[in-house]
Write the C-alpha cells for this entry.
Amino acid sequence: MRIGIVLYPTFGGSGVLATELGKALSKTGNEVHFISYNQPARLDFFMENIFFHEVIIPQYPLFEHAPYETALAGKIVEIVKSARLEVLHVHYAIPHASAALLAKQILLEQNIKIPVVTTLHGTDITLVGREASYEPVVSWSINNSDAVTAVSESLKSDTLEHFKIRRGIIVIPNFIDFERFNKKPREHFKKAIAPNGEKILVHTSNFRKVKRVGDVIQIFNLVQKEIPSKLLLIGDGPERSNIEKICRDLDVCEKVTFLGKQEAIEEILSVCDLFILPSEKESFGLSALEAMACEVPVICSNAGGLSEVVVDGVTGYLSETGDIEKMAKDSLSILTNDEKLFDFRKNALERAKNFDLKNILSLYYSVYQDVVLDK
Ligand code: GMT
C-alpha cells in the first residue's frame, strides 16, 4: 500500500510512534511518505520505500504567524497526487487532522478520493485540544475522519467525555520494537555512571509541565538519602531551568546528569534500575513501555492510560499524581531488595511483550484496508 504519514518530527511520543510505525510498514513492503516540517527525529536510516516530504511555510510580512496548516494541506494535496497515495494516516489531531480533511476536500473536487485515518495521542485531547478555540475543530476533525484510533482506553473515554463525538473510536495501543528495545550488556557504561555500584534511576520526557519532572527530582532526593544512587534525565524542554534549580536547592546536582535529547535511548535504559514517570496526564506512556522492554521497572502516577501499561505491584508501582512520598517508598522497596528488583525486571519485560510491534502493526494495517475498501 502507498501510505502518507503526517506527524510531528520531534522526540515527542506521537512523532516517535508515527515514525516507528512508518518504518515497520516499509519493512513489510509498503511505500511510506512522511510529511512534516522537519526530518522526523527517529527517521535515521535510508530505505528505498521511505520518503520524506518537507512542508515549507512561506513567510510574508503580513503574517505574524505563518499559516502552517494551509502549507501542510497544500503539501498533502501535492503528495497524494504525485505519489498516488492510497491512505493518509495523521498523528495528533491538531492541526494534522483538519489539514488532512481540507486536503481531502480539495482532492475530491479533482475526483481523487483519499481516506484519512486520525490517531489521537494524548495532549491533543487531554490538554491543548480542549482550548475553546480548538475544541470545535478537533470535534469536527474526529467526526469527519474515515477512521479514528486512540492509543489507550483511557484516551478513548477522555475523547468521548470532552468532545461532541458521533462515531466509533478504535483503541490501538502503542507498541515496541523488540529488535531495537532490549537490555544490552553495557557494563562499561554502567561503571562510568555508577562507579561504586550506585543504583541508577532514569526519566525521559520533553520536560513539559505535564510531566512533573520536579517530582522526579524530589523522589530521587528521598531515595538518595537512603541508598547510593544516581539519576539520569533524558530529554529537554521548557521546564529544564526550573528543574536545574530544584536540583541546586536540594543539593543533588552532583548525582543528577542531564543527558539532553538522545537517539539511542535503549543503550541508556539498558544500564538503569528504575524508570520514574510521575506525569499529571499520560494517555499511554510510551517511554515507560520502552523502559519495560529494556527490563526496567516503572514508578509512575496513575494518570490516564498508565495503568493499562504498568501493572501495580508486578512491573512497578502506581501512585496518585503528586504523591512523592509513596513513589520514593515504592522506589526504595524495589531498589533495596535484589530479588524483588530481579523479579520486577522480568515481569516488566513479560508485560512489554503484550505490546510487541509484530502484533500491533496488523491492527493499523486492517484499519487502512477497511477505509480504502470503503472509499
Ligand atoms: O507530551 C508528550 O508526552 C508527547 C506526546 C505527543 O503526542 O507527542 O505524547 C503523547 O503520545 C504518546 C504516544 O502515543 C503517549 O505515549 C504519551 O502518553 C502522550 N503524552 C501525554 O498524554 C502527556
Notes: The chain has two domains: 2-175+356-374, 187-354.
